[in-house]
Amino acid sequence: MKKFASAALIALWVVPALWPASAAAQAIPVGSMFRSDPSHTGCYDSPPIPEVKAQLWRFTARHKILSSPAIGDGLLFVGADDKMLYAIDIRAGMARWQFETRGKIESSPAVADHVVYFGSEDKHLYASIPAPASRSGGSRRAAT
Prior knowledge:
Oligomer: single chain
Low-confidence stretches: 4-19, 133-141
CATH architecture of the largest domain: Beta Barrel
Helix content: 10-25%
């Protein structure tokens, strides 16, 4: 019985590694997610960032920001330890809206099809529909 259990555990560990990546994962464009690709290699197929000559704007949250930002629909989304997800206008650097959870937001948000996905230390995963960048405030929806 012990040999069978050991073989089953090895099969569960080795066999998925031999399967090819799913069609959905293969269809994701390189550079459209954190660390570039589904394997999170961090290798990008683009030229390096040119020298930064000037700071365009600075945004200060009430508490520290540990998450990496995500950009979509003219907004930059970032979570903070003040339990807020901020939607910041990428041109002006001003918060258009914010969404409060019951826990710190240290995970990096993801944006797909006009929806922002992020996790919170309140043990919930949120999906939020942002207001357009051209409006101040506006409709937003989060579900757990």
